[in-house]
């Protein structure tokens, strides 16, 4: 290897490893320690695609936001910051659009979404599961998101109408409130 | 007809008996000897092994992928990347094996990134994935300095630019490009810059195979600009899509014309027949589009056909003349390279 190539090889390898593993570490932190939010799903159907079975997800929250903002829609690709609270049942409810630098009250969660041409979007619009598991996931009524302090939300799983997490592999169901 | 076919023909017609046929094959090194059989067997086994490995990977993904834990899925992509990195590190410097290993490392970086995106579903835009992939692949492209890897890198950047365009801050001012809509100026700028750099780094005496990348870039540019300019000249932008403005139409035609003139001037001096033919065919298509757009009625059918045939003939005659002139008086650089 020529003299200048070896340092470039090492630098490129180290940067790639640090960068991509850093992304994975940050997402794992969000999923492990982020604030759990339970979002009601709109009726969905399991679908089969080349990648295996997956469930198309649609959220009441994004439908409501799209309806509210359609009169004066933001630019496509613009990030939206919203504040969510929880009702007595523990399900997330839209409270208001967040203002820059706003201090949140106790029990409130900041969540970032994106506005596309056809409305507001949460990061995940599908949930992938192993082939043959469609019947179990058809019972899903809620999406469980884990939200980092900066409002980044990651889909952590799906829950049934009693808020029990539907496990990816068959095991005893757990409560979404206690251990989503 | 090659030597083998000639011998086959003589044997079939009875002019050559079996023994003579065999002797001729051996004399012309057409009959496979033990070494060639060994090489063939090794290559067959290599291809068979690679296909089995590929099939195994596909089966593993298809059957178990989504039952595996998140970190295992990401870890497998990372392990694959590390294995390719080790291959690139230990391969013989400046060998084809090392160049293809670096190609695989650059490609695998994108696959690893895609696996992370699919596993965590962060909602990032697709253009961000391609832009990040292009950034991660750039050091490997610089290291390998290998035309197929530069080709891959140009494709990745082009996809990022194409997918980014709807999000571009100036999009409302100039609208966005789609196949029959407006024009992706950043993409054309990138291709022009890549073509200029490829031509600057590459000698005019380079063999045909070493000039595949600039020729593909030239072809892509010619297609993109010719389709756009022809649509404007034929009036289809206004008639069909009602999306174009006279300003953007003028920009497209001016850009196309500037590129045609620059390509004619440069490749006439460079003596690249294929890249010289592209602007000529581009003008031929654009002129026909303009005539068809302006003409109405069946009366124009024959004049347009004659114009098309005459144009093609003129281009062929002129290119043939250039080729003969170049062969009669080769460039000094080409003569030196041949020696």
From TrEMBL, chain A:
<protein>
    <submittedName>
        <fullName>GDYXXLXY family protein</fullName>
    </submittedName>
</protein>
<dbReference type="InterPro" id="IPR025833">
    <property type="entry name" value="GDYXXLXY"/>
</dbReference>
<dbReference type="Pfam" id="PF14345">
    <property type="entry name" value="GDYXXLXY"/>
</dbReference>
Automatic annotation (TrEMBL), chain B:
<feature type="transmembrane region" description="Helical">
    <location>
        <begin position="102"/>
        <end position="120"/>
    </location>
</feature>
<feature type="transmembrane region" description="Helical">
    <location>
        <begin position="247"/>
        <end position="268"/>
    </location>
</feature>
<keyword id="KW-0812">Transmembrane</keyword>
<dbReference type="Pfam" id="PF09925">
    <property type="entry name" value="DUF2157"/>
</dbReference>
<protein>
    <recommendedName>
        <fullName>DUF2157 domain-containing protein</fullName>
    </recommendedName>
</protein>
<feature type="transmembrane region" description="Helical">
    <location>
        <begin position="71"/>
        <end position="90"/>
    </location>
</feature>
<keyword id="KW-1133">Transmembrane helix</keyword>
<keyword id="KW-0472">Membrane</keyword>
<feature type="transmembrane region" description="Helical">
    <location>
        <begin position="273"/>
        <end position="294"/>
    </location>
</feature>
<dbReference type="InterPro" id="IPR018677">
    <property type="entry name" value="DUF2157"/>
</dbReference>
<feature type="transmembrane region" description="Helical">
    <location>
        <begin position="300"/>
        <end position="319"/>
    </location>
</feature>
<feature type="domain" description="DUF2157">
    <location>
        <begin position="9"/>
        <end position="150"/>
    </location>
</feature>
<feature type="transmembrane region" description="Helical">
    <location>
        <begin position="213"/>
        <end position="235"/>
    </location>
</feature>
<feature type="transmembrane region" description="Helical">
    <location>
        <begin position="44"/>
        <end position="65"/>
    </location>
</feature>
<feature type="transmembrane region" description="Helical">
    <location>
        <begin position="126"/>
        <end position="143"/>
    </location>
</feature>
């Amino acid at each position: 290897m020529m003299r200048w190539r070896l340092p470039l090889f090492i630098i490129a390898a180290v940067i790639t490893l640090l960068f991509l593993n850093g992304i994975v570490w940050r997402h794992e932190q969000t999923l492990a320690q982020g604030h759990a939010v339970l979002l009601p799903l709109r009726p969905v159907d399991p679908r089969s695609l080349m990648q295996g079975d997956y469930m198309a997800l649609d959220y009441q929250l994004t439908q409501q936001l799209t309806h509210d903002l359609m009169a004066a829609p933001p630019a496509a690709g613009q990030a939206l910051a919203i504040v969510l609270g929880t009702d007595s049942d523990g399900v997330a409810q839209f409270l208001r659009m967040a203002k820059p630098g706003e201090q949140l009250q106790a029990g409130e969660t900041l969540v970032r979404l994106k506005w596309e041409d056809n409305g507001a979007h949460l990061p995940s619009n599908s949930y992938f599961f192993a082939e043959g598991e469609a019947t179990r996931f058809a019972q899903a009524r809620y999406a469980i998101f884990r939200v980092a302090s900066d409002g980044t939300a990651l889909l952590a799983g799906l829950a049934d109408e009693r808020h029990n997490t539907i496990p990816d592999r068959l095991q005893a169901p757990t409560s979404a409130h206690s251990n989503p | 007809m090659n030597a083998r076919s000639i011998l086959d023909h003589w044997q079939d017609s009875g002019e050559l008996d079996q023994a003579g046929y065999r002797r001729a094959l051996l004399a012309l090194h057409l009959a496979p000897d033990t070494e060639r059989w060994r090489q063939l067997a090794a290559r067959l086994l290599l291809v068979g092994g690679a296909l089995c490995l590929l099939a195994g990977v596909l089966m593993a993904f298809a059957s178990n992928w989504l039952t595996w834990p998140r970190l295992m899925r990401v870890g497998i992509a990372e392990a694959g990347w590390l294995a390719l990195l080790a291959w690139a590190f230990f391969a013989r410097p400046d060998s084809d094996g090392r160049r293809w290993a670096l190609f695989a490392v650059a490609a695998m970086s994108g696959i690893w990134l895609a696996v992370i995106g699919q596993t965590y579903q962060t909602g990032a835009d697709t253009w961000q994935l391609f832009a990040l992939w292009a950034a991660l692949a750039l050091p490997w492209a610089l290291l390998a300095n290998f035309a197929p890897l530069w080709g891959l890198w140009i494709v990745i950047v082009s996809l990022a630019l194409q997918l980014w365009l709807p999000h571009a801050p100036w999009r409302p001012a100039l609208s966005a490009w789609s196949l029959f809509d407006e024009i992706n100026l950043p993409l054309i700028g990138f291709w022009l810059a890549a073509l200029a750099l490829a031509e600057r780094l590459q000698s005019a005496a380079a063999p045909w195979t070493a000039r595949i990348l600039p020729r593909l870039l030239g072809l892509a540019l010619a297609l993109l600009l010719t389709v756009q300019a022809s649509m404007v000249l034929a009036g289809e932008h206004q008639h069909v899509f009602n999306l174009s403005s006279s300003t953007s139409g003028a920009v497209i035609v001016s850009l196309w014309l500037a590129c045609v003139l620059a390509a004619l001037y440069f490749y006439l001096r460079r003596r690249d027949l294929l890249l010289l033919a592209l602007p000529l065919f581009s003008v031929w298509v654009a002129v026909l589009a303009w005539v068809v757009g302006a003409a109405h009625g069946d009366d124009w059918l024959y004049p347009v056909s004659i114009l098309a045939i005459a144009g093609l003939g003129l281009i062929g005659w002129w290119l043939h003349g250039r080729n003969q002139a170049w062969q009669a008086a080769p460039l000094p650089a080409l003569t030196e390279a041949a020696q």
